[in-house]
Fold each of these.
Amino acid sequence: MKVLKIATAGSVDDGKSTLIGRILYDTKSLTDDKLEAIEEKSRQRGFDYLDFSLATDGLVAEREQGITIDVAHIYFSTRKKSFIIADTPGHIEYTRNMVTGASTAQASIVLIDARNGVVEQTYRHFFINNLLRIKDVVIAINKMDLVDFSEEKYNQIKGEIEYLASKSEYKNQNLTFIPLSALQGDNVVNKSENTPWYNGETLMHHLERLDADDINEVSQVRFPVQTVIRPKTDEYHDFRGYAGKIYGGDFEIGDEVAVLPSQTKSKIKSIHFFDKEFAKAKNGSSVTITLEDNVNVSRGDMLVKVAEEPTITKELNATICWMDKEPLQASQKYYIKHGVNDAQAKITQLSSIIKTDFSGKTDNPSELELNQIGDIQLKLSKPLSVDAFNKNKSNGSFILINPKTNNTVGVGFIR
Amino acid sequence: MNQRTIQVDALESEAIYIFREVVAQFEKPVLLFSGGKDSITLVRLAQKAFFPAKIPFPLMHIDTGHNFPETIEFRDRLAKELGVKLIVRNVQDNIDSGRVKEETGRYASRNMLQTETLLDAIEEFGFDACIGGARRDEEKARAKERIFSVRDDFGQWDEKNQRPEVFDMLNGKIDLGQNVRVFPISNWTELDVWSYIEQENIEIPSIYFAHTRKTFVRDGMIWSADDAVVYRDEEEKVEERMVRFRTVGDMSCTAAVLSEAVDIAKVVEEIRDSSISERGARIDDKRSEAAMEKRKQQGYF
């Protein structure tokens, strides 16, 4: 069965954790012991309803404050599909954790509190979904029970989001609007009688229908070498296999390949997976490949098909989402991790800060602060083999690591 | 030559990718092996990641001294068959030397004491990456865990300040003294693990299958009465029941479940229909709302 990875986003108190709890409850995915624990805790806290956020807010600090701080990964299945939901924080301080959760998602749910409409965090979440090129985005207009299930209110919010979408440069996104009440269960799993004016599907019905394709839409095959396998046993004395995961396309025996960055040419001799050999390996497979010629290949090198080569470069233009308290400043040095490859990187220019309401850019800022998104230029200590992010997500993204703290401080999208 | 096309299941491919990142990024990795189904699954995935080479790191078991004998026998045999080094460190040694104090009474367990022995062993061998079989679906604090989870030199997890982990780029850079806990099967569910064991025909210890055992009931849970380490009041009546174990922890905190599942296909079926979560039978999680989070902050898995 295919797995659909979904991320949630929304402002504080928009009800993300409650929505997930409601989905788990209405799809009967909560086991008896977990449900009993939620009932017990809700009673203890004096609530006259079940506090479903208790199912997902796994940290003490989250339960104390009633907010989600870090991503929780929730797993459940219906008869039609398996799901992984990344329940991500809404608080602006934890935007980086939202990016963490959303980076591997195939679909995203943006929650909006019907009473408040589109707020600053909505812009940010909508923008990040666009930046990450998430194809299917559900705009869940929540707490409809608190606005008397007003069709007018729903249409007003829908219009505002459609206006935002019209300004985004990512045009392949599918937007779906659903009015719901996570607390009461309207249009989550079961169709609501309170919204007779809404002809669309329930949230779960919609999610069950979505295709769970790979996050790469279309691209050419990329094989970054993770490690070289040399058993040096009697049986496999001369075995030299390149272990890695295939991104974006397929490889078969006999394919002419280029080893990057050296651009040495060879042919695929064999494809191994555990104790078996295969003629062809598909996108997403972690395999071991041998080549016909005894060429020099090491970790960080990349095998690609001849004539499908990416750009080999020591300079990058990228959009970056900054995730560290210490701001990014031009002329600073970082480690760059591009897939499994490492290099040193110097920020040569911080060109602009991008406003997340699509209203433009601030040019030549002095620094980029936590949770801001900007355009930068980088100089690299060695050449990397890269694609643009909109061509190949895995080969078009990178992270920056602060050499002093070893922390991951930014995620970049190559333009 | 097999002409088939390989398209490895996404979860298996992800786990293999993670194993290879560990070996490429760290000097001294170790696989924490309890003899349970999750760590047995890890061993198979590690074999696949590096074949035809051998698994390039040792296995380590933190033995509480209260493990099921079936598990210990299985552990030793598996390590021998794989030709992989097995390190065993015993909680009993720390109890004997007075470094840790054993609990007493009806809920006494050595589970918490493992942390100290684990941290000692990490320091003794200088391990910088400890691979474990924890899954995010097990427990709500574990649902928050990164795949590469940095621990400081006290083994502590700073749950409020975790590194962002985007796409599948894993940042293994650490300072001397820190270590990374690595969870290759983070995204697997209990059912995924059982289905994989069935599909791969992997051998597991016999206690996972239904068998007749002397048991008693306390707080609605079924405990093994065969083993002297499980505290039992005299009025707690021993009866023979057909049971199996869903997790393999320390005997003193792992309860059995009534079961008729005598083979792997029946186990998979039973898990699919179960209305109780896996850790519902673990008394160590029931100590408080935050039992797992607190243990993890102190260096537990």
Amino acid sequence: MRKTLLESLTHGSLTEPAPAPDEAALSELAAKVDRAAQARLGRSLAIREVDAGSCNGCELEIHALSNAFYDIERFGLRFVASPRHADVLLVTGPVTKNMRQALERTYNATPDPKWVVAVGGCAIDGGIFRGSYACVGGVSEAIPVDLHIKGCPPSPTDLLKGLLALLEHVGCKR
Amino acid sequence: MGILDSISHVHTASSHRPWPRAVVTEAGWQAAIDRLVEGRLTLLGFWGEPTAVHMAMLDGGSAEIAVVTYACTAGTFPSVASRHPPALRLERTIHDLFGLVPAAADDLRPWLDHGAWGKSYPLSDRNASRDVRPYQFLPAEGEALHQVAVGPVHAGIIEPGHFRFTANGEHVVRLEQWLGYTHKGIEQLMQGASLEAAAKLANRISGDSAVAYAFAFASAVEAALQIEAPRQATLLRALMAELERLANHLGDIGAICNDASFALMHAQTGILRERCLRAANVAFGHRLMMDVIVPGGVARDIAPDGVAALRALLAELRKVFPRLIELYDNTASLQDRTVTTGIVKAEYVRQFGAGGYVGRASGRNFDARRAMAYPPYDALSFEVPVLEAGDVNARVWIRIREVEQSAGLIEQILDQLGPGGFETALPAGTGHGACEGMALIEAFRGDVLVWLRLDGELRGERCHLRDASWFQWPLLETAIEGNIIADFPLCNKSFNCSYSGADL
Ligand code: SF4
């Protein structure tokens, strides 16, 4: 164990420079975020991830955000266990009909001000699962969405760009 | 003696490849169930169509496979689950999707159907409505018992499902799962889909097994059409499959340790996992390698700098991984949580035909790569680790050994890659109506089965995809009994069953 610990201390940091915020994501967001709500939030966002029926590919990449390369916590972004502690819901999947109610309840349990980020092609409009008898077809069909992050799945860098856009927007309007 | 020799059947469907499928009468169907109950055959899959049910069975000794079909002329079929418990969830699913009724079934509660689809029996044209009483969990009675309900939304970043614990103090006396929250209706979306669209769907059955599903789907199509992917393509498929196995095992070994509050391991394996995904991205243009395997071969060759990226990955792995194994082995606080926790009995993995590390950690020596010896594994050398203890620790060790084996396989494949075609052109149609194919491919968590029927224009007529999780989830219920609730995350992670793959 000592060897591993020592080596982690001596070899340089793996963490990579932060990507520039995505312009398109920024403008989509700007149109939607409520001004009054922004003033109440500091430069820190608590994120509750909700899988609304994804294939799990998006979750794998969301997990990767916490590894040493991306180290999402340095941006003041952290994943929390309860919607009651959350500012942001990160929602994946085509919203299966079996998950719709749980998603709505999670949304209702999240205190205001709150933002919803729909992650991945399925979360945008059902993606490849669109038209199924078992899917609602996009997160915005169930709850209001502030930002979409495209990709199938979006890479950790894409996710980070989207989240940074959210963070900067929320931060600068304080 | 072949499987069908001991089961009376009416006739054999000649267009079913590579294993036979035969229509049976009630006597034949019962004889098939007898073989399962006796343990002479293992249930590999059980699925429906609007007017028929099929069972795929494996003879573990000869690695022979056969499918039996029962025509449900009266909308019913003799229940399999009432005699052979591993069939239960599959049987409830058949009822949910097709409305076929298993005669004399003990348990016909809905499984995937949560009453939210707005239609009962969506894959049949039956319009009957269903009982809409709230879901009844199985009872557990006794003084001082209490229930803990968890999910579908969990505290971590994981897939949704419901777990109902009945506990006596901290000790779990019963766990009952209720899944289906990620049911997306994939089998219906496959109907009428072009091969291209269906392959994309297959890639997205379970994101962590994208390669394995694409591999299985492509193999089933190729079996149906009697074509073979070129050698270079099979090598690349196995290369991706091993890379996927490596990435998942690395991620899970760390996550299991993390659930035992040993975060250092999680951080270290997280770095290795990320390096795998980046190498995959360089080599195949997608971190999870989705949409690279297609029926007939692979969509593109490995990128020119992919070989170097993969060799660098192996070098890093060889340097770092042995130290992490040592760390796992020498950390008493970790061993304290994993040794003797969540034991799965050997008799259960045999009865359920549990695949992957769940089966192999409890003594079931089965790996589709070796048993089916599909290309290119028939010409590669590797070992299949098997342990007996059946606890969380054994499942970790199986994964550790499989990481080493996968690294060896990747190296062998890189040495063998050469120039050459990587795609066989598909025919425009069968020229003679429908054809059927099947494949069994080893994903990181166990064998994936794909069965399909294509129409004359090569569109999906019926496709069934069965994840290894179907036969592993029920064993998680048995593994947690007598353990404390706090050990559930650890047990659960050591299984890492798929929700999306089993809910479809
Ligand atoms: S967007 Fe793609 S990766 Fe994400 S859940 Fe949907 S199918 Fe899976």
Amino acid sequence: MQEIIIGIGVTALAGALAAVAGAAEDTESNIGSQGDPNSQVQLAPQMGYTHRIYNKAVSGEPPAYTLWVTLACGVAWAFLMLGVNAILAIIFGTVLATFVQGVYATTAYLGRTASLSKFGQPVFIDVVKSVTTVTMAHAFVAIFATVTVCYLMMTVIGHPFALPLLGIVWGLALGAAGSATGNPYYGKERQYQNQKFGAGVPISASGNIVRYAEAGQRSSIDNGFFTAKFGGPASGICFGLIVFFELWRTIIFEDFLAGWGAVIVGALIIVVFMIIDRYVEVWARKNYGPYTVEA
Amino acid sequence: MSAIAAKPGANAGSFQPIPSVIAIVIAIILVVVAYFLGSSGILAGGAQFVLQTFCLIILGAALIAFGVHFVPVGGAPAAMGQAPGIATGVAMLATGAGLAGLFGGAWAAELGLGVALASGAIGGALMMAITCLMVNISYVFGMGIPAASGKVLKDPITGDLQAAYKSQGTEGHGLPFISYVGGVIGGLFGGLGGTLIYIQLLDFYNVGLPALGFVGAADINMLSVGLAGIFAIGMFLVIAVLSAYNITGTIEGPHDPKFKRFPRAIVAAILASAVCGLVAMLVVALF
């Protein structure tokens, strides 16, 4: 019984940490413009729209976060093997991974932006100075929270994978969940605020991203400020729910029916999410209505 | 041939019999090699055990390749609400779901093959169910855009008309119900295939490592779990990337015409997993 109660507590803690990780991950990727909408940031100067948006998408979010989280997990694991306190070990690993993220972000921004010089796009050194540190701060939060989740899975919950392997699994899942949920909000809602609300961006508008703010040119940090109101929390809920339900169904129901209990409960949760999705889809169709008359 | 002339025509992605036969023949040769390595004692456990492990690894890879085609991926256009699907890469999303499944399957490995496989499949499907729901919530409540497919007139499951809900100048947006179901099925197959590869390699290493002279059950198990986990993740990435090339960027799900390309990806996955599987097994070879 005690094991189950501890398991429930750790599950809740892991879910909460994952929610923080997801929110920080999405905000970091939006400030650094690393998700799929970065195609527009890269395209804009080629269409004649020079800008001051950060641009560090030399890889997608999932492989980038796999690298950073696994690196942090590997270093933390090495320190744990040396007998270092767990919290210190996780912080050491996260700090190193954050520095790697900073180097990645700087070289990615300089490389990607310099490649646009033939279209008149300048490299802004003040953008490198001001934005890189902000993405590093958000990356620190995302990596620290994810490594802590992995540590809890390895030690308290007793998953057979070693910490670096768990880092690969959950770093990738973090990037996948964050980019899937957060990317459309950054891409459609922020980069194309000049387009109609409640409709997709017409393909003909590609590259015409919003470049000006209330005063002066738009900064990438403002993008983080904007998406942290919806895209970030939504990504956090997404990753938090994934971690929570993955652990919860196993910890509580694995002892039923020789392990099949967790499988059946997992299937039921999927059906519940499916019903919610259908409800959301129908709700949108009813309340927003068709764009043209139905054939 | 010029670059323009080399552009894919109307039959892009169609099944090509000659390369496929060559791939299958090479894969069969590798199966025979694995059998020989087992019967000659180079790989521990006997010819039957080695053959069974090798064939199930290939089956796992084929399941992953099939599953990847169900996952609705819209890439960059989806991020601007220009195309339906999830706004990320095919390989990344499919691997994310598959590894979430592998996490569950590895956790349940001690409860038997059936439970582990089911747990892996459900783990992958659960990850996709939550992700796909949050994608639709983001579109509907964050951006005020209903889901609409650009490839079919009616949703094959719900029968909802799609064309009228597509905003002007786009190919659709969000995840219609068929795409949602496709995502869940994709996660299911991905988790199942990944776990199958992991369990087979785990059993194989648990037999192979003591034969190499390793002692101590706990140490052997830790090493086996690590090796099997790394190779399973690596093979998953190989198959997901191969399948992503077959899909070429975006796919809406099982109703998308590109879905019919899956036999080609399965053939490629059989060959790639035969090569990767043999390398993974040779790690504990008794040369």
